[in-house]
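Continuing the batch. This is chain 6 of the set; chains 1 through 5 are on the previous pages. Same settings as before, nothing changed between runs. Recording input and output for traceability.
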Amino acid sequence: MVQSQATSVDDWLDGLAAAERPIFEQLRAACRQELANWEERMQWGMPGYGPSGRDNAVSFNAQKRHIAFYAGPTTVERFRERLAGIDCGKGCVRYRNTDRIDFAVLRAMLRDIHTRGGTMCRS
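Output for chain 6:
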């Protein structure tokens, strides 16, 4: 799934294979807890979270061979040491193995993003 046509995160989750769904539900729960006063919505064909009236600051997606967590370049740089051994791009963390997702680090990243209130870089 690269870009979904789903209109809600629930619909997006319904489109996942049964084996994929639990990890994305866990990721969604972390986002909803750490970004509690932000809107959950579909933007750019993937689930995301952002302040009302602004673009998503956090998004995630199911790719063919990995889970993509779009946190933005500032967050990826700030957490680079804690993400050692994980494939990171400019503003994206790519989890090729779901066992490598450290939810304590992911939640810390979400709190950092929420505190800064930044928008996600689309480049």
